[in-house]
Amino acid sequence: MTNLVLSNQSLKSLLTSCITIKQALQIHAQTVVNGIHHDPFLITPLISFFAFSNSPSALHHSSLLFSQITTPDLFLYNAMIKAHSHSHAPHHALSLYKSMLASPTYPDSFTFPYLLKSCVRLFSLKLGIQVHCHVVKNGFESDVFVVNSLLNLYCVFGDTGNASKVFDESPVRDLVSYNTLINGFVEAGFASCSMRLFGEMRRFCVQPDGYTFVALLSGCSSLEDCETGKKVHCLAYKKLDSLGCNALLMNALVDMYAKCGYLEMAKRVLMSGIRSGKSVIAAWTSVMSAYARLGEVDVARRIFDQMEERDVVSWTAMINGYSCSGHFEEALELFVKLEDLGMEPDVVAVVAALSACARLGALEFGSRIHHKYAGKNWSCDQNGGFISAAVDMYAKCGCIDSALDIFCKTSDHLKTTFLYNSIISGLAHHGLGESAITLFKEMDTLGLRPDEITFVALLCACGHSGLVDDGKKLFESMLTVYGISPQMEHYGCMVDLLGRAGCLDEAYCLILTMPFKANAVIWRALLSACKIHGDIDLAKIASKELLTVEHGHGARYVMMSNMLADIDQHDEAASVREAIDNVGIRKPPGWSYVETNGALHKFMAGDNSHPEAKATEMMLWDVSRRLKSIGHVISA
DNA sequence: CTAGGGTTAG
Question: How does pLDDT run across A70-81, given as a tens digit for each residue?
Fold first, then answer.
């Protein structure tokens, strides 16, 4: 090759037609050879080429070049910030911004959207709020791109309150602003707000596009509002003559009809999608899930097997389809198959598997999954769902210590009401009422609001630990302090709590004064308390009431007959048994699982077929004898 | 602004 010396100009024009990283590296080498690598007109396009070539090593290379520039200009700063915002290390974007603030350069409207995106990718609302302050300080709140990035930031974190505030206070709004907030409302579970916003959008004559309709339909799916869904369908049909080529929209339509239970309509839209050659995996997944929810697991499985393409989402849907119908073993089997096929399960799939383990009590399997996926690059441990699923799994499998360990190691910004609910109910089931209350008090200092589930867990914890006064105080505080009106479940917990503690009259009184008609759960709780404390008169009342709300339920008869036998009312017990025979009621046998050394053992009431059934029974007898000896009262 | 699949109680 001839020793050709290229001028600055020709190198620069070469760079514009450069395609591969290798070519750009060659040009860079030339600039060094020619001693012109400090020419800003050459180095700037080189840096941005490397920055935007979507390769971690090239980005590293551009960072090196960038660091050698003494006073980078705004353009270069923005280029580097943008490149880092979608890199594997978005925090570099914020460091760059910091050094920019220390330099004579000021940010502009191009800087903030990428900073905000970095905060989103760092899962840090806190940093995002700081950047928001800088937006205000620098006067960019009226730039529509900045506004849309702010909207996205708040929506991603489910903070629709702040998102609405940004939206309301912004002098500029475009289609993207509306779409972002509409979608944010839907994802936060406020689908009705999204419908209202859509109305406003139309009044302001902002023309919706495909994304608007997809978001709205997704809202109709979650509301199971097929009426609105149909209207959106019509509107989308009229507005978009290109409806036929939008796969996303077709999928959203199918999902809406499937979730609303209009399976025939869902399949009709799906078929039209197939005819026009669209990508239909998502639509099939929706239809499949609908069948699973209806309890038709076999139909769901057939669809799953017949789908010509399956992705992680379809696998997850099938795994959950099994879980929904109580087929936890099949769910886990499918998860293992997914792993064996070399497909990388994502957080949602892992969460689904952990949940199946929790339901089965499959500790070894569950902890294997937990350890395998904690600390992966897509960061399960940054995902609130993964953490609560793991906490729940350990708690349900009897390892409250492991559950607490995970909980305590979780940093505060990842602690949510949901996670507290998981750990508190875990503590409740382990009879650790005091700890449950301690953690509950912690929520306040983190600014987390308890919800109705928190109180179910708390009251349950008090009930299992005999903390009657604490339970009463908490029940009081629900409405007076937290503005949550107690539901049937909460009254149920209170009846159980008072009943176990022997305050039978107080429990009965609560039932009579509560604002709803007591359901079977409540009467059963009272009946069970009567059994423990041997109150026959109240037991008769409770069982009479139970009969009126729950006609012909086998468990009631069995419980009643056992109870009467226990308190030496053998004649009455016999008459109840007779009633069972007369009505022909059969209580479905109780069953349970236990997992040891990776094998699952199923136990059913009255079933002695397990090879170690005799030994197990002896062990159980021993356990209950020891429980009795330390004063524990075993209820029905 | 890019569907479809998820975690807590009873």
Answer: 888 899 899 999
Q: Are A325 and A295 in contact (CB under 8 A)?
A: yes
A499 HSE (CA, 13 A, CB side) = 30
| Domains present along chain A, CATH in parentheses | 173-310 (1.25.40)
Q: How many CA atoms lie within 13 A of A612 on its CB side?
A: 7
pLDDT at position A5 is: 63
Better-scored residue on pLDDT, A330 or A47: A330
List Cα–Cα distances, A286 to A214, A241, A290, A448, in angstroms.
Answer: 14, 25, 6, 34
Contact A170, A147 (CB under 8 A): yes
Burial class (CB in 10 A: 0-12, 13-18, 19+), A497: buried
Say whether the CB atom of A496 is under 7 angstroms from strand B: no
**Nucleic strand B within 7 A of Cβ A355:** yes
Residue A323 contacts strand B, CB under 7 A: yes
Cα separation, A594 vs A481, whole angstroms = 42
Backbone angles phi, psi at A180, to 5 degrees: -60, -45
* Dist CA A289 CA A300 (whole Å): 7
Would you give the end-to-end CA distance of chain A in angstroms? 92
User: In Å, what is the CA distance from A477 to each residue of A486, A490, A497?
Assistant: 10, 12, 16
Bases of chain B below 7 A from a protein C-beta are: 1-10
The first and second tokens of residue A157, run together, are: 């974190």
Residue keyed to tokens 């799953």: A304
DSSP state of A86: T
Could you tell me the two tokens for A443? 């929520």
A531 phi, psi to nearest 5 deg? -65, -45
Among chain A residues 289 through 308, which have CB within 7 angstroms of nucleic chain B?
A: 289
Which tokens go with A609? 């077929």
C-alpha–C-alpha distance, residues A163 and A154, integer Å? 5
Amino acid identity, residue A549?
V
Residues 6+ away with beta carbon under 8 Å from A287 = A254, A258, A263, A266, A267, A270, A303
- Pull the structure tokens for residue A166: 């940004």
Q: Nearest residue to nucleotide B10 when comparing alpha carbons to its C1'? A: A489
Q: Which residues, other chains included, contact A435 with Cβ-Cβ below 8 Å and sequence gap of 6+? A: A427
Q: pLDDT tens digits for A480-497?
A: 999 999 999 999 999 999
Helices of type H across A384-503: 384-396, 400-409, 417-429, 433-445, 452-465, 468-480, 488-500
| Distance between CA atoms of residues A536 and A481, nearest Å | 38
In Å, how far from its chain's centre is CA A1?
Answer: 61
pTM of the model: 0.80
d(CA A266, CA A283): 8
Task: Give nearest nucleotide to A383 (CA–C1').
Answer: B7
What's the token pair of residue A544?
């009479």
The confidence score (pLDDT) of residue A586 equals 46
Which tokens in the block code for residue A237?
Answer: 């049909």
CA A65/CA A207 separation, integer angstroms: 45
